[in-house]
Structures are given as C-alpha cells and as structure tokens.
Here is the input.
Amino acid sequence: MKEMYDRKEVKLLTNMGGVKSKLSISALLLLISNGMGYILNQKYFSIKYSFYSYEDITFGNLDNPNLFARIGDKITGTFHVLGYSYGVPVFSLEGIKNVLIVLVVIIFIYCCCNIIKNCKDYSSIQLNAVIFVISSILFNLFIFILTDNFVARYFVPVIIWIIIVFAAYLNRKAELLWEKIVKLGIGVVLAFYMFIACMHTVQWVETIKANDHRMEAIAFLKGNNYSFGYSTYWNGNIVTALTNEEVELANILSPETMDYYMWNTNKEYYVEGYHSRKCFIILTSDEVEQYAECPVILGGNIVY
Here is the structure.
C-alpha cells in the first residue's frame, strides 16, 4: 500500500512540475512578445506614424469631468463596444441585441464569481487565463478612468478576451441539476447573442453602403493621376486606407486654416518636398458650403 501511495505522490508531483514548466514557458513567451511589440511600437511605428504612445498618456483632471462621470463614461463605452445601440425600438433586432448585451455583462460577472468561488475545480492554466482577463480589464479601466486617452474602441483588444472566461466556466463539469440548467441557459444566451450580433452586422453592411460615394471619387482620382492631396480627418484616412495608399491624403483641421492634423497618418506626408506632382483637396459638400469664402476654395478649380 505504501509503495502504491508513493507512486501516486511521485506522479502527482511530476504532473505539477510539468504544469509549472508550461506556465513558465508561456509567461516567458508572452514577455518576449510584449517586449517585441513595445520595440516595434516605439522604435518604428511611432516614428513613421502619428498616434498616441506611452509617453503621451497623462493623468486627467478628476474635477472635469468628475470621477463618477468618468466611471459612467467607461461603463457606457464598454456597452457600446459590445454593440449596444441607443434610440432604437425595443422590439427590433437591435433592441433584442441590447437586452442580450446586458445579459452577457451579467453572465460575465457571474462566471467570474463562480470560477473564483470554485477555483479548485479548474486547472492552473484556466485559472491563470481567467485571472489575466480580469486583471487586464480592471487595469485598463483604471488607466482609462484616470487619464484622458479613452475612446470606446480602445477597449476592444481587452474585451475580446472575455470569451476565455465563458469557455472556462462552460468547460467545468456540472454535478447538480440546477448547475446544468444554468450552464445550458448561459450557453443559449451567448449563442443567441453571437447570432443576433452577426445578423445585425450583415444587415448593416447590406443596407448601409458607407463608402459608395467615396469609391466614385477615388476612381476619378486614380483615373486622372491624382496621388497626393489634403482632406479633413474622416475623409483623408478613409480614402488613404481604401486605396491602400495609392492615393495619399494628409489631414487638415479645416480648409479655413489648412493647419495640419497628423493623427493616425504617415508623418512623411507633412514633410516639405515629399510630393512634387499635382495636388488636390477633397471635401464633402457640407464642408464646401461651410467654407465657401476660404481662399483655398475661391482660388481652386472644381474638377469633380
């Protein structure tokens, strides 16, 4: 009997050592990946393109807006990241999706609490993954609340990992009947949410042709060998992306001042002498009407 016990103990200790070894290797690989990402971000992309880097993040004024307003704004932003829409009918596809989003948030909180409560039923890898997700969400919320560098979409790379928490919870074997019913209900809600979200995305893509009006202008620019020009932010970056940089647009704040707005663009666009061929400025109809008396419009020729 003692020999059998010793064998089991050795096997248990051996398995534990294997788990620790795998976790150590995973942590090392993550550390190396993060280091490479930091180097690429700071030493290449931040030099070539204009965007926020770690050095640009500063603590905000907690009086304006106040701390509670900041927390509310981040919670609202999280719901928007998950697909929440405001001003939509309750009994509609988007309305149903909103209800499901609220349920998904409640389910996430429940799953986290359940996993922590029953941590002995989960493997070390599962627990480490869940702790990583929870820690990432709390850390990023802390940063976003205390700084002025938050836009809802910035939270996407963090929120996407909540699927790990759902997977860990659903993978645990349920012993009691009520646990099985709860797990089945959670699975149905999550599946229904994914289905409705996908349906809404497909419906949006099919009914709202967001860039059709731009494609005609892009075809004209390419056909007439216009490859560099100026535009306001929401035209400039989109046209540059849609043409895969065949047509390059530098951003301006407005046609009135022609001041550069370098956000999310290649810094080379703003270097004198970068482009020496014919140049253009592309504006929306509303912008042309608003800035009709500006020199850049009065002195230019409308070609499209």
